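User: I've been trying to design a sequence by hand for this structure and keep getting stuck. Would you show me what you'd pick, starting by listing the structure so we're on the same page?

Assistant: Good idea, let's start from the same input. This is the structure you sent:
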């Protein structure tokens, strides 16, 4: 069947949540001190905040009538701080593909659609965060030409 990308609707909430929850569970297993295991990872209020806004978008990938992937993105501005050059960029909050549909080019298509959405809004860049343990995601984004911009370092102070 053919893959189709479209803007998400209210009816896609449960499917989107299920797909993102898979990634959340991977994160909770890798970093249980940082990530909780939840039934509803995507709060309904947050999901709703993406509807009917020019500066936010949820793109779903579907095969037939099944939602198999999702990208959630929004436009942002650099902080108003004189040491930073003012800039407008798109932030990819989530990019996830159902585990049974991974490695079929769906993530790449979602990423490309997110980049097109950002370009149409004159974003200077597309940015996202990836946790260091997530080697598959790091390799995936590197294969798309993304580069590391910065790193967050930590020291555990509790034994």
């Amino acid at each position: 069947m053919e893959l189709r990308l479209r803007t998400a609707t209210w009816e896609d909430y449960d499917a989107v949540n299920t797909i993102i929850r898979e990634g959340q569970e991977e994160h909770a297993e890798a970093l249980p001190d940082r990530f909780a295991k939840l039934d509803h990872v995507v709060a309904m209020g947050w999901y709703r905040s993406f509807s009917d806004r020019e500066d936010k978008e949820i793109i779903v990938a579907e095969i037939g009538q099944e939602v198999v992937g999702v990208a959630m993105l929004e436009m942002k501005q650099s902080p108003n701080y004189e040491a930073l050059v003012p800039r407008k960029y798109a932030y990819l909050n989530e990019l996830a593909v159902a585990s049974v549909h991974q490695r079929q080019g769906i993530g790449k298509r979602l990423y490309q659609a997110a980049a097109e959405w950002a370009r149409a809004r004159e974003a200077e860049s597309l940015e996202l965060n990836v946790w260091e343990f997530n080697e598959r995601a790091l390799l995936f984004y590197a294969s798309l030409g993304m580069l590391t911009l910065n790193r967050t370092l930590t020291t555990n102070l509790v034994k």
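That's my pick for every position. To get oriented when you compare it with your attempt: The two ends are 52 Å apart (CA to CA). The chain has a mean pLDDT of 94.
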